[in-house]
Amino acid sequence: MDQIIAKAGVLVEAIPYIRTFYGKTFVIKYGGNAMINESLKQGVMQDIVLMKFLGVNPVVIHGGGPEITQMLNRVGKKAQFVQGLRVTDAETMEIVQMVLVGKLNKEIVAKLNLIGGKAVGLSGQDANLIRAKKTQPTMPADFQGEIPDVGFVGEVTGIDTTIIDQLIANNYIPVISSIGVGEDGVSYNINADTAAGELAAALRAEKLIMLTDVEGIFENYEDKSSLISALQVEHAYEMINRGQIEGGMIPKVQACITALNHGVNRTHIIDGRLMHSMLLEILTDQGIGTMVVQ
Ligand SMILES: Nc1ncnc2c1ncn2[C@@H]1O[C@H](COP(=O)(O)OP(=O)(O)O)[C@@H](O)[C@H]1O
Ligand SMILES: CC(=O)N[C@@H](CCC(=O)OP(=O)(O)O)C(=O)O
Fold this sequence. Notes:
Pathway: Amino-acid biosynthesis; L-arginine biosynthesis; N(2)-acetyl-L-ornithine from L-glutamate: step 2/4
Strand order of the largest sheet: 5-8-2-1-11-13-14-12
Number of strands: 14
EC number: 2.7.2.8
CATH superfamily: Acetylglutamate kinase-like
GO molecular function: acetylglutamate kinase activity; ATP binding
Largest sheet: 8 strands, mixed
Number of helices: 9
Organism: Hydrogenispora ethanolica
Helix content: 40-55%
CATH topology: Carbamate kinase
Number of domains: 1
Oligomer: single chain
Low-confidence stretches: none
Bound molecules: adenosine-5'-diphosphate, ligand 2
Keywords: Amino-acid biosynthesis, Arginine biosynthesis, ATP-binding, Cytoplasm, Kinase, Nucleotide-binding, Transferase
């Protein structure tokens, strides 16, 4: 009996959160390293659909870096990165589209729909949702020589939220691949964290949630007791400059900063390997992972 009452207690604890978030938009970045197994994927999908049924408007933007690399290996191409950006020649761009738009986007949409969501898959090209131009990697201050050409890698120049607004208004869950379209109609490969930050900013979302493969941001990555629960933007910059935040975590933190600068209320980096981490973050008093704050 006590156990059943405890279950009801969990629901009651959620009331103030549901009331606060009702009708608000959450941008959820679902990354390749958090897509590690079927039961976890299923957990993430359940969280998203439950959120929708509770009145939140989830907008999903996904990556899939590890799957792109696997597919490149299968066709005998070696993945190459410069400052975290995948060097993307024309053939790689085709594979990026095949994996992100053709495979992963459809998989996520199918899983959401199977459990009762009304998900619609889009790439940044659809309805000119994500406009982009060719970008260059940002090299370290002490770098000398010519900046390497990373090919069809794009930076976001604008986001047209019309299609997303319409889908939300009609109760759909938009699921977006991080591909952008240039003025010339050319497709660009955009880092999914960067695209998520820009999307949350353009939608003036209530929250940006980045699911990843660590508990959050550690003050010292080697010391697993040094998890930071609230990270100030200023301290985040210091940590990046000192090399305490590095690699794939840099674009995540930058995405949070972009979102915060454009009025997004809360940005979170949480562990996608933890079952129902999103629900724990949103609907309980505990809060998990790292919240990046102004
Ligand atoms: N200070 C830090 N705290 C936590 N993770 C960090 C930190 N600095 C770098 N990282 C790295 O960032 C990684 C997450 O980025 P990434 O692998 O690109 O994730 P995803 O595929 O989910 O987008 C972590 O696995 C970790 O290796
Ligand atoms: C330019 C660039 O690097 N694009 C990324 C896009 C996918 C991505 O960001 O996936 P994750 O979120 O799983 O890392 C790539 O090609 O891997």
